[in-house]
Amino acid sequence: MSAVYDCNTQESRTDGLKAAASAVRSSRLVVLPTDTVYGIGADAFDAGAVQSLLRAKNRGPDMPVGVLVGSWTTVDGLALGVPPQARALIEAFWPGDLSIVLPHAPSLTWNLGTTRGTVMLRMPLHPVALELLRDVGPMAVSSANVSGQPPASTAQEAQEQLGDSVAVYLDGGPTGDPVPSSVVDLTGDSPIMLREGAVSSAAVSEVLGIPVLPKS
Length: 216
Hints:
Blueprint: E1 3-6, H1 10-25, E2 30-32, E3 39-43, H2 47-57, E4 66-68, H3 74-78, H4 84-93, E5 98-103, E6 118-122, H5 127-136, E7 139-143, H6 155-162, E8 168-171, E9 182-185, E10 192-195, H7 201-208, E11 213-214
Parallel strand pairs: 1-8, 2-8, 4-6, 5-9, 10-11
Antiparallel strand pairs: 2-3, 3-7, 4-7, 5-6, 9-10
Helix pairs in contact: 1-5
Family: Belongs to the SUA5 family.
Keywords: ATP-binding, Cytoplasm, Nucleotide-binding, Nucleotidyltransferase, Transferase, tRNA processing
GO cellular component, one term: cytoplasm
């Protein structure tokens, strides 16, 4: 049976983060608040847990899971290289609402879906998410909803969709408008906006000093 913790009170938040960390280390799933929408997460390096995440969402490997990190420096161990463009976007928008796609380090043994050698990385601007990430390390995280259904902006909405497939729900209150992160692909010759969400193409272009191409 799932456990729900109100992270708006200190004692419950402490207990919830402890339970969530234990769940992640035990190959189970957690729901956590982020600065965009609620996310369903698992240990990024636990292939079985990531598969459980995809099953909970009724989603196939053709839609790979992104990775949330708790610090800028974590990226250096996950990407094959962090180009100057990525550094500029990290400094401008992290922690925040921009996901960056980079080639992943070939030494990593993980299975996030059909990624074609890439990984989508983001550092969220939410204290509960950051505290958990800094405890357990990088997490594979997707929006906390069944595929095709609206993303959850509250823990209750996430629980209504995902039920007991999730071990621990961290309730951080409403996230506000359920706007997803923007996604910029830096794996090619030119930056491409794969999804325009909370951060505009114009804002990304301004930081990079070059136009960001739309997804073809």
